[in-house]
Amino acid sequence: MKVYISVDMEGVAGVATLDQIARGGFGYPRAQELMTAEANAAIQGAFDAGATEVLVNDSHGTMDNLLHERLDARARLIFGTPKLDCMAEGITADHDVALFIGYHAPAGGPGVLAHTFSAHFGQVRVNGRQVSEAEVNALQLAAVGVPLGLVVGDDVTASLVHREFPGTGTVVVKHSLGWSAANSVSPGQARALITAAAAEAVRNAEELTPPTLPDWLVLEVDLPNETAAELAEAIPGAERTAIRTIRREVSDPAELLGMITVLYQLSASAVAARQSMITRR
C-alpha cells in the first residue's frame, strides 16, 4: 500500500495570515511547525491503516517549508522548486491513494488565504471553470489513475471537495472569517482528526474511484498586469484573450501544470519589474 501526500500551508490549523505563510514573516517559523505536525498526523494515519510506503511532497511556496528533522522518519520527502509537476510532483500509478493536507480555496472567491498557485493570479480556469489547486492536482491523479482519499483545509475548501469529488473525505480544521481571519480548532485537535481521516482514506482506498480526466484541457489565467500578459503571449500556443488574460490548450495535466509554473515565474518577474520602475521614479 503506497500513499502519496501533498502538503500545503494555508489550510493548516492555526494559520490564517500572510505573515505566517511568507518566508521571513514573524509567524513563519511557527507555521512551519504546524505544517510539519499535520504532515506527521497524516503519515501516522496512513501507516496505522497498513501503508507500506509514504511519499510526501512539500507543496507550499518555495517548497522547502517542512522541518525535515521533525518529519516522521518512515516517510520520504520531495522538496524544492521548480518541480515539473509542482504540487503533484512524484505521483505515479504505483500509488494507491493520495491525501491533500493544508489545502485552501481558489483565487477569486472566499476562503482563508484563497489563491490558485500564485498570489499574483487573479483567477485560474480550466475548461471555462474557476479551479482550485486541489482540482488542478487532481487532474494529475486522474492521469495516472490514483484516487483522492482526503483533503484537509477550511470550510470553503471542504464544500468545494464535496461538490467536485464525491466520496473523498474532508477534515475542516477552521472556518473562514475572511481572507486572513479564521475560527480554528486547536492544532492538537486538528492532528487527531487528520490521523483518523487519513487512516480511513487508506483503509477504503480500493473503494475509491480516481478523478475523471476531461477529453480536452484549456487553461486560462488572469495575470497581474499587462507586462506579464505580454511576456506570456510569446509562449508557443498561448493566446491573449484580454488585456491580462492568457489562454492555451494543453495536451495533458503535466503540460497544464508546466504552463502554470511558467506563468507563475513570468508573473513574479513582471510584478518585480513594475515595482522597480515605481521605486526609481
From TrEMBL:
InterPro entries documented for this protein: DppA_N, Peptidase_M55, Peptidase_M55_sf
Pfam short name (any one): Peptidase_M55
Protein name: M55 family metallopeptidase
Superkingdom to which the source organism belongs: Bacteria
Coiled-coil annotated spans: none
